[in-house]
Amino acid sequence: MYLTIEETAIFLSMPEHQVRRYVVEGRIKSVHDGEQYLINQTQFDLHLEQVEEVKRQIDEWRNTPIPEDIDVKDED
């Protein structure tokens, strides 16, 4: 399925001008049909999956308790 720049901006929750800049720079692959740029939505599937995995890993890391240091001595 192909999206316009406007639809892609909504899909990615990004400003439209940023998506347009990424298309012009070649950071987002697109097809120009003579009137507008069309962007294949499936190219973002892997990216969005990776972002979600990184978020999950960060949450897991934040929730992992810090282990007690074996070398800490009680100095009573």
From TrEMBL:
Presence of the UniProt keyword Mitochondrion in the record: no
Gene Ontology terms for molecular function: DNA binding
Recorded superkingdom: Bacteria
InterPro entries with a match to the protein in the record: HTH_17 (IPR041657), SinI_DNA-bd (IPR010093)
Pfam family, one: HTH_17
Residue span(s) of domain Helix-turn-helix: 2-50
Keywords for this protein: DNA-binding
Keyword RNA-binding among record annotations: no
NCBIfam families linked: excise (TIGR01764)
Name of the molecule in the record: DNA-binding protein
